[in-house]
Amino acid sequence: MHDNITLVATITARQGAREKVLLALKTVERDVQGEPGCLQYQLYMNRENDHQFMMIERWQSALMLEKHTQAAPFNTLVHAIDGMADLQVTSLTSAV
């Protein structure tokens, strides 16, 4: 059994906010990659909708993910995109 946590965060920037949301996402991507327990934190853009981004996250454990949600980079992102984007987070597990 694996304790790793995999998340897909889908962030859709609202009209007129794309550049600000993208800048905030690039900043958090850079800052979070060095956090303890972070195995992957990678930003992608939907090829068919340039206002929609996906952050693929992998964490060593639920505890490391919890620490991430309390850390400054994540909280800075939350405040930076508040009111400018819609967020949906999906938690994944291995199908095997």
Automatic annotation (TrEMBL):
Pfam families: ABM. Signal peptide: none annotated. PROSITE patterns: ABM. The keyword Oxidoreductase applies. It comes from the Bacteria. One of its GO terms (cellular component) is cytosol. Gene3D superfamilies: 3.30.70.100. Residues 5-93 form the ABM domain. Keywords: Monooxygenase, Oxidoreductase. One of its GO terms (molecular function) is monooxygenase activity. This is Antibiotic biosynthesis monooxygenase. The lineage of its organism: Bacteria, Pseudomonadati, Pseudomonadota, Gammaproteobacteria, Enterobacterales.
